[in-house]
Amino acid sequence: MNILARVRSWLPWGAWGRLTKGLVLGLVLLLLALGGWSGWSALRPDLSCGPGVEKRGPAHECIGVTDGGFSFLPRLAPVSARIKAENDRIAGRPHATVALMVPLTETDDAEQQKILREVQGAYLAQYQANRDNSKAPAIRLVLANPGAGGAQWRPVTDQLEKMAKSPRDNLRAVAGFDTSVTSTQQTILHLTKDLHIPVVGGAITADDLADSKQHPDTYPGLARIAPTNTEEAAALFSYNKLNKGVTPDQTLVVEDLRQDDNYIKSLRTAFEGYSSHPPEQFRSPDDIHSTGNLSNDFQRLVPNICASSARTIYFAGRYTQLRQFVDELGHRGCSTTKYTVITADAADTLASDPDFDWSALNRGSGITLQYAAVANQHMWDGDPKGGPGSPGSSPDAVKQLEALTGKDAPSDVGQIGAVDFKGSRTMVAHDSVWTAITAVHNSASQTDPMPSLREVSNMWLRLRSASKVEGTSGWICLDNYGNPYDKAVAVVELDPQDKSIKFDGLAWPEGSPPNQECTPDK
Question: What does the alpha-carbon distance between residue 220 and residue 20 come to, in Å, rounded to a whole number?
Answer without folding.
Answer: 69
